[in-house]
Amino acid sequence: MNAQREGARARAAIYTRISKDLQLEGLGVARQLKDCLALAAKQDWEVVEKFEDNDISASGGKVRPDYDRLKAFMEAGAVDVVVVYSADRLHRNSRELEDWIDLASATGINIHSATNGSIDLSTPDGQTMARVVTAFAAGEVAKTRMRITRKHLELAEAGAWPGQKCYGFTAGGKVIEEEAAIIREMAARVLAGEGINAIARDLTERGIPTARAAAWRAASVINILKAPRIAGLRVHKGKVASKGQWPAIVSEDVSAMLRAKFAPGRSGGKRGGPRKHLLTGLLKCSKCGTGMVKSINGKSKKPSYRCPRNVGAAACGGTTIVAAETESWVIEAALRLHDVSVLKQSSDSEEWLEKSGALDARLEELAGDYGTGTISRGEWMAAKSAIERAKAALPVPVMRPPKLSTGEMVRDSWEDMPVSARRAILDAVFVKIVVLPRRHVTGLKAFDPDRLSPEWWR
Ligand SMILES: [Zn+2]
Description:
Layout: E1 11-18, H1 20-24, H2 29-43, E2 46-54, H3 65-75, E3 81-84, H4 87-90, H5 94-107, E4 110-113, H6 124-157, H7 177-191, H8 196-205, H9 218-226, E5 233-236, E6 239-243, H10 252-262, E7 283-285, E8 293-296, E9 303-306, E10 320-322, H11 323-335, H12 347-371, H13 377-393, H14 407-414, H15 419-429, E11 430-435, E12 452-456
The structure holds zinc ion (ZN).
């Protein structure tokens, strides 16, 4: 069955392969080749051609030009014997081995492995032997893979530090205090509704170093804040697996809120708060003192603020002012302040943000659990309504923005702020703005700024 020619030395082809697995085991091409050449020398074969495929290349092992070339070589009867490094190493999977067996059977050419005591794939015994060796090798690979997977899971469940340097922590999981302070500041500002871009810009301008000494970007702020590790939580396969063995920089609730905020599908803080109209209640009717509400003016059809005529006996319904220009004027007046560093985040709004955000995050988690079948629909509905009741029971405080240093900074982030955050700033600047009656003077434009009489906090 061997196509060996009479009286001549057998012609041998050597096939080696570069692969990550083999290289990790120190079985680079040089080593494979050396062993194959040694076998050929021992058998007194004449090496006529060497073939080499590279599994690490861009083709990812799917295309093996030299395997095909070798096949053509064998089919053309240009070799008598093929030497490969090792049946169990080179044929890590059975399908690949079957390819070699088919090739050996079809061409009647022996395929010897440099290890495994020269298994001859062209004979049925050799084929059986190769299949057994390959099956064992595949089993070893699977077991190793499982051991590694289990080890990773064990580490995750034990809350081990994932082991790389990231913003706020050293490579060993120790807190870097200066960076931790920045993380806390970013979290507070984001949760108070400040824009991500404005925060990144501010940090860059202040010369705060990033992890890689570059400029701050919105993405870097988000990536830091949405990582559960800042709350001391260990993530495994994208999910929180355990409490980590390292200190938390922010509370778990704050982290849950941040994650919910940056979850895919959320518009990242551009959602309006509970308030829909910027000046409702802040503007007071000069005739009766009632807080004005937004509506469409009956005559001009323009959005306007008016004294609500029908609410109780106190409201007179006698004052109306156009909304757009009034809002612009008030915003401008507030932002023109040279210094609004008086603004402080009140503890009750911080608490409300934390609590309601944590409840929202829990609702999302529950929905996820229901989605993945961890809990039943009934359990989900029950838990959902309990959380919604708890949320409704939270007293809603007056929202205050975080401490901001200049009016310029507020202006920067104004566009990104939800109405509730904008309003919180106005509330921190104005006690109220009294709207005086329309003056009947000829030539006066529709909007008369002299009608607005602000009272400032001192
Ligand atoms: Zn009134």
